[in-house]
Specification:
This protein has 564 residues and is of the alpha+beta class. The protein has 3 domains: 215 residues, hpI Integrase, Chain A (Orthogonal Bundle), CATH 1.10.443; 95 residues; 161 residues, Beta Complex (Beta-clip-like). The chain has 21 helices and 13 strands. The strands form 4 sheets. A 4-stranded mixed β-sheet has the order 4-5-13-10. It has a 3-stranded antiparallel β-sheet with strand order 1-2-3. The longest helix has 30 residues. It starts with a helix and ends in a 21-residue tail after the last strand. The relative contact order is 0.08. It binds S-adenosylmethionine. Pfam families: SET.
Length: 564
């Protein structure tokens, strides 16, 4: 057997495995939704055809010829994604380990995330520009993919665009959302918080420019979204049955009337199916054979294994302020390698924790070198801590304002625009709740409990008559805010956030505080929610309703969730 034959054999095997993967995932989704999916089952059977070597070669040949005549191949259009991938994985790892990356790198990482949607999912720039945090929060996992629906689709007047990210792509967007976006978010008072925020602190407005900047950074000729969408359409036209074409066109979100009429209802399985189908263009494309070499795949796998092992390592040896990094013997006994990689990472994390701890001690006045030295020595730290000089240099005066006169808070109350929060549906009897879309420090004000101010006695009367277990009352001392009437008269077009905050006795992270807010037209009693601990992104906001199991509807009700 010649080496070329062996190589061919391996290539065909890989293609066959890829096809099986595609087919299995389709089958899986189809079997769950069998009643609705007869059409997809038919589609499955037609998908079998390209496996035949002859058919596959014929398809590839035609496609190849067509590229020569006019279009760049999909492989060429995706070049920037391959070229920058190594860098992006490097940045991804750094973000996860809380390592510093420069502002330029953060922007580049954002370009990459945008490019995932534009180049790998063939979406229009308007989808990237309109993508909101609440749409990200509503993402749904289906069949191994993360399905996202974007409704603010400016450029094409579409109802909604849906795309299904694979695990790696979703992880990249998640890293951007958790570690980069919060730094750039400004209290912009935007109606809807956008997912992609530029370094100026405002939502991005030109995703196609970002895409061309990503190409320019890697010194590659630009690929526009129109171009890659045309290529995908051509492939769809060549490879797909009529039915598959509809699915693909649906995914590409045609803006014309026919498409709108045809593709009204979008479902999770439909998006996943389309994404698998479109992914199949790439996988079965002859010229994309080198997309990710086996070496590159191995490197990616190793990196993923490393990340998984590091989190196992940190679970086994949690990073504490005063602990010692695990010795070689302890590491080996716990089943980790004797190398120093995780040991070093553990130390980096402890160093950062200690720095944060020291800085948090000096809330009012700047510390002196002697004072920090004394504190370090009191903590008993001998090594792996920042120097007193570092802490003095990093200290920043606290930003102090009285809440009652804080113009930002006053404005937010009046407009009912609070940033860093979104409503999430938890389903079941719990219903909706509020989650953080940016981190909040202990002591910060998140939002108010907007509603009608009544006395606590009046509130009690209302509470005793509640029959549906849904209570929108907030008691603070002798005051009560009644937010049952929705929408309120002053904000008829708004879903106010405070009334959506759920209860927790044991894990409350905010508490209601009564403030006499100084508005230009006089003082008003307002109930504000203040963080009683640091709050992370994605964390649900909860406060202790301060009511007991039998508070609702008098003695008749006995609600277990009030004990949570
Ligand atoms: C102020 S509303 C909170 C928003 C509400 N979940 C919704 O969907 O509109 C209070 C109601 O939410 C529900 N709720 C609040 N906290 C809950 C919890 N921890 N578990 C289950 N249901 C809860 C109860 O029905 C309660 O009467």
């Amino acid at each position: 057997m010649t080496s070329a034959t062996i190589l061919n054999y391996i290539k065909n095997m890989i293609r066959f495995i890829q096809f099986l993967k595609l087919e299995l995932s389709l089958k899986d989704s189809a079997s769950i939704y069998l009643p609705k999916c007869q059409a997809y089952m038919d589609l499955l059977s037609t998908l079998r055809k390209p496996v035949s070597k002859q058919h596959s070669q014929a398809v590839c040949k035609t496609r190849y010829d067509r590229y020569v005549e006019g279009q760049r191949s999909l492989h060429e259009c995706h070049k920037v994604m391959r070229v920058c991938k190594k860098d992006m994985f490097g940045l991804f790892a750094k973000l996860l380990e809380h390592k510093q990356i420069s502002r330029e790198e953060k922007t580049l990482f954002r370009y990459y995330c945008e490019a995932i949607i534009l180049l790998k999912h063939y979406q229009r720039p308007g989808v990237v520009e309109g993508f909101t945090v609440s749409e990200w929060m509503k993402r749904k996992s289906h069949d191994g993919k993360m399905v996202i629906g974007v409704s603010q689709h400016k450029t094409a007047n579409m109802q909604i665009a849906t795309f299904a990210l694979n695990t790696e792509q979703a992880a990249m967007l998640d890293a951007y959302y958790h570690y980069i976006r919060p730094e750039f978010v400004k209290e912009s008072g935007e109606e809807e918080e956008h997912f992609f925020i530029g370094s100026h602190g405002r939502p991005i407005t030109c995703a196609s420019q970002d895409l061309s900047r990503l190409h320019a950074h890697y010194k590659l000729p630009n690929v526009t979204t129109q171009e890659i969408r045309r290529v995908a359409e051509t492939l769809g036209g060549q490879m797909c049955t009529e039915e598959q074409k509809t699915t693909v066109a649906h995914y590409l979100a045609h803006s014309n009337v026919v498409a709108e009429g045809k593709y009204r209802s979008r479902t999770l399985e439909e998006a996943v199916l389309a994404s698998n189908l479109i992914g199949g263009f790439e996988n079965s494309s002859e010229d994309s054979g080198g997309e990710i070499s086996s070496q590159e795949e191995k490197r990616q796998r190793d990196e993923e294994d490393d990340k998984e092992d590091l989190s196992k390592f940190l679970k086994y040896f949690p990073v504490t302020l005063d602990g010692q990094p695990p010795s070689k013997k302890q590491r080996v006994q716990a089943g980790f390698s004797e190398g120093r990689v995780f040991y070093d990472k553990w130390r980096v994390l402890q160093y950062a924790k200690r720095e944060e701890h020291l800085l948090s001690k000096y809330t009012r006045n700047p510390p002196t070198i002697q004072r920090v030295r004394k504190d370090i020595s009191k903590d008993g730290w001998k090594a792996n801590h920042p120097s007193p000089e570092d802490i003095v240099a990093k200290w920043q005066p606290p930003k102090r304002k009285t809440v009652e006169r804080d113009p930002k808070i006053l404005n937010n109350i009046q407009k009912q625009k609070w940033s860093g929060l979104t409503i999430k549906d938890f389903g079941g009897t719990k219903g909706e709740g509020v989650v953080a879309t940016k981190p909040f420090l202990k002591g910060s004000i998140l939002c108010d409990y907007h509603g009608r101010i009544i006395t606590a006695a009046e509130g009690q009367e209302i509470q005793d008559t509640i029959e549906d277990n849904k209570c929108y009352l907030c008691f603070v001392k002798d005051l009560c805010i009644d937010a049952k009437t929705f929408p309120c008269e002053c904000h008829p077009d708004k879903e106010t956030l405070g009334r959506k905050i759920n209860h927790s006795k044991k894990n409350a992270n905010v508490k209601p505080v009564h403030s006499k807010m100084q508005f230009p037209d006089g003082t008003k009693d307002i109930i504000l929610f203040k963080a009683i601990k640091d709050i992370c992104i994605d964390e649900e906001i909860k406060f202790d309703y301060g009511v007991h199991r039998k508070s609702y509807g008098g003695e008749g009700q006995d609600l277990e969730w009030l004990d949570d």
